[in-house]
Amino acid sequence: MKPNLVTRRPVPYLPIFASTPIPEEDPDYVRVMSAEIRVLARRKNAVLLVHNYQVEAVQEIADFTGDSLGLSLEATKTNADMIVFCGVHFMAESAKVLNPTKKVLLPHLGAGCSLADSISPESLEDWKARYPDHTVVTYINSSAEVKSMSDIVCTSANAVSVVRSLPNDRILFTPDRNLGAWVARQVPEKKIVVYDGACPTHDVLRGANVLKTRQAYPDCVVIAHPECREDVLAVADEVCSTSAMVDRVAKYPHATTFLVATENGILHQMRKRYPGKQFIMADGCIGCRLHCPYMKVTGLADVWRALNEELFEIDVPADIAAGARRALERMMAVPRD
Ligand code: SF4
Q1: CA of 53 relative to ligand 1 center, distance in Å
Q2: Ligand 1 pocket test: which of 295, 297, 298 has the largest number of ligand atoms within 8 Å of its C-beta?
Q3: Whether the predicted pLDDT of 17 surpasses 70
Q4: What's the chain's average pLDDT?
């Protein structure tokens, strides 16, 4: 019998220090495996949604690449029976919530998210009790259960607009403290209480590292994700969401070098879209610090197995799905920033 998973936390399996060669670095393996995945996907009428932070070989088999909400919305437009979500667990949950009649598969159960795990339903209950007259705005990087307990969801692309659109001047923003603090600076007219979660991949970067890296590229443009700390955002030329970071490069036609402060997988899409430009990780190394182990856990073999065995199916209990859908649909009624 196939497992029907209603998991809040995937089983941790993080082969970060694997000593065996990474098969995705073998071009023959990538070519053969990618072709087999495409055949299987066609046979099963599956759509392959791949987040911008996934390994390059997985990004290359995608029907669509993008950020979590963009991908879930893309899935609502297809006639596919099955969604294979190459991302992390909360994204597959959102895809299921927005596409309840489709089978949603997460290829690797180790694909969790530290930020989403930093807020549990119990912890949110606790904060809501402390701030009873506040409207709860929850970042999409959260479990379906936490979304269902929130008034409205936001993404990094629309967080400011969502907060501005609310009639209440008192906001409880969860779970990302860096994004919440950034929103509070853009919307000073509201009193925003910020929860204390963070994405360790972004939170590890310091403004001093960015400044040091920038010394070698004095004419560069710095583009940062708002999950970064305030000292990083203070030295950035642009602060925007994952998908917007790729688009924002076009705003600088005369710039040749860009320092990028987010998970290193985004560089693949940037280099494809702008082959004449140079993209450097803002941490000054090859991206080993700006590296999300959860995003990198999914390989081509996992995708192939997901399609072949229809694993691992993500389901969301009906009452939680209804609450999460309500919070997501409220957000979708608000335009992007
Ligand atoms: S980069 Fe951060 S927020 Fe994104 S999946 Fe990884 S841990 Fe979660």
Answers
A1: 9
A2: 295
A3: no
A4: 92
Going from the C-alpha of 10 to that of each of 89, 107, 227, the distances in angstroms are: 7, 11, 23
pLDDT of residue 25: 84
Reported as half-sphere exposure (CB side, CA atoms, 13 A), residue 26 has a value of 11
Measured distance CA(122)–CA(15) in Å, rounded: 30
CATH tag, 201-281: 3.40.50.10800
State how far the Cα of 182 lies from the Cα of 159, in Å rounded to an integer: 10
CATH level 3 topology of 4-112+294-316:
Rossmann fold (3.40.50)
Q: Model pTM? A: 0.92
d(CA 10, CA 12): 6
Q: What is the pLDDT of residues 147-162, one digit of tens each?
A: 999 999 999 999 999 9
Q: Where are the domains of the chain?
A: 4-112+294-316, 115-199+323-332, 201-281
pLDDT tops 80 at residue 13: no
pLDDT digits (tens, 9 = 90+) for 159-207: 999 999 999 999 999 999 999 999 999 999 999 999 999 999 999 999 9
Two tokens, residue 181: 């603090």
Q: Regarding the domain with residue range 115-199+323-332, which homologous superfamily does it belong to in the CATH classification? A: NadA-like (3.40.50.10800)
| Tokens standing for residue 9 | 């936390």
* Minimal-distance CA residue to ligand 1 atom 2: 199
Distance 227 CA to ligand 1 centre (A): 9
